Amino acid sequence: MATLKEDQDNLNVEQDVEQDVEQNLKQNLKQDVEQDMEAPKHIPPPNMAGWKPCTQELMIMLTLAIISLMVSLDATVIITSLSTIVQALNATATQGFWIGTSYLLTCAVTMPFIASLSDMLGRPPCLFASLVAFTTGTVLCATAHSIALLLVGRCIQGVGGGGIIILSLVIFSDIVPLRFRPRYVGIIQGAWALGTCVGPIVGGGLATPTLWRWVFYIMFPLAGIGLVCVPLFVRLKPSSSWTDMVTRVDWLGGILFICSATAVLIAVSWGGTQEPWGSWRTVVPLAVGAVGLVATSLWECFGASHPFLRHSLFNHRSAVAVYMGAFAQGLLLYGQLYYIPFFFESAKLSSPLRTGVCLLPVMLTLIPASVLVGSVITRTARYRWAIWAGWTLTTLATGPTILWDVDTSPAVWVVILVMLGLGHGLLLNALNTASQAVSVAGHEGAAVAMYAFLRSFGMAVGVGIGGSVFQNVMKRRLVALHLDPDIARNAEAYIAVLHDTHPSPHRSAILNAYVHGFRGVFAVFCALAALALLVGLFIRHHDINKDLLTEHKLADGVVGWRRRENRSRSRSRSRSHNRGESQGQSRSQSRSESRNRSHNRRESQGQSQTQSQNDAKN
């Protein structure tokens, strides 16, 4: 009986021990679950946790900003110095027209293929080659003693400039998460906008027979900085070998696209100005270019193994609306920066320097607006409001320019130019962000390349369309006033005659014809801005909290934010490991204490039983 009772007591003790251990395990498990519920379910990506660039990334951004400033300055410095250069080289009005157009044309048509080459060959080699091409073209322009050599230099500059513009934005998308690109891309976009707005001022100051070559000389310090800093800091490398990269390049598609786009831009540039729209010199290149672009699209969709034009970029209406907005903004921004100074020099008889100063309201508002909207987009992760507000301001500012005349007061045009700068500043950053937000994950580089190409394509088209409208409207007005209609064909060269002519009814009538020509151009710009606003309403919101997916790493093989993410994950794992060890120690301690209590209980029970047996014997 005693043995049976002892076994029963031992069984009860073991059950008590098991219950204590089970209770402790349940309590620890409950604590683990509660901690997991309170903690985030995953390590947040850097674009959610607060990304900051490392030193190398900051130096890359600064380098890209400097060379972007150089390229944009070169594009617009020619606006207010063009008439002086034409006179110095004894060029015709047609040749003078191509000084600016040749740069924009070659800049635009080479962009997509250069971006595709950088995917295969690597960003730094293509960027450095673009810098070398730009510098070579600048040397030719600065030393040119004939219009032919100057045009060759401008074409080479355009190829290099196109590569610099497109690769600056693409490299930026390689190193900065999308959520934070609006904030930091303001560095590059601000530099680009600064050069675009300051160019006419600098060109106006250098527009003399002895100083016009300095229009190109001032590029050399910036080009020198770029040639040193690009190899030093921009060290990104793709994962493929050179053999694989060269064989993957879509050479046929790239050549076909460049030739076709060039033919279209040539036809659009001189159609209605140098050649009638019905002339074979306009119709043939336009038709050949259109057929070539269709053939390029078919080849990219069905023939190319590695297409440089990805049809996935246009897979929904938001993407189409964004790219249409990019084209419209390029057309309007450069068109307005070209024809507004033209208006001041001709209709208001301002000097080139004063004309450049008149653009200060645009410059002083466009750059801060672009930087500020980038910070707001990064903070709120919303960008559509900036697109809608930008197009609204641009439309409202473009409308009153239709009413400008020789007597328009400074107060009126200053307010209009301030609104114009704010509108374009909002659009410059918001459209760039939207183009990447609506793209397929991992295709942000191709998306920003398409955005930059269409913006530059619009810039090239804007001058040609504006020139066609201006000449035709001005010509009709000259005929109505019984004046020589050939003045419209040489409107820029005739500005020097107007400045040397004393006030008279004849000069006033010619100025009136100029004003009517500008009204036609500004009316087209206003209609296009309103159409772009309408198209922008179809853009849907897409999340910008995307992980950074790129094959082009920093030189050490790891993108900067991933280094920080890995450190964050390591710290998190370390904390989790320490917490697990402490929890394991607490569980072991609980089990040990339970066993000790059970052992003590058994000993006390054994002593009680022995005492009871002794008492029974006694």
TrEMBL record:
Residues 590-604 have a biased composition (Basic and acidic residues). GO terms for cellular component: plasma membrane. It comes from the Eukaryota. The chain crosses the membrane at residues 58-85, 97-115, 127-152, 158-178, 190-208, 214-236, 248-270, 282-299, 320-339, 359-378, 385-404, 410-431, 452-470, 521-539. GO terms for molecular function: transmembrane transporter activity. It is found in: Membrane. Residues 564-577 have a biased composition (Basic residues). It is a multi-pass membrane protein. Keywords: Membrane, Transmembrane, Transmembrane helix. Residues 60-544 form the Major facilitator superfamily (MFS) profile domain. It holds the Pfam family MFS_1. Residues 563-618 are annotated as: Disordered. Its main location: membrane. Residues 605-618 have a biased composition (Polar residues). This is Major facilitator superfamily (MFS) profile domain-containing protein. The lineage of its organism: Eukaryota, Fungi, Dikarya, Ascomycota, Pezizomycotina.
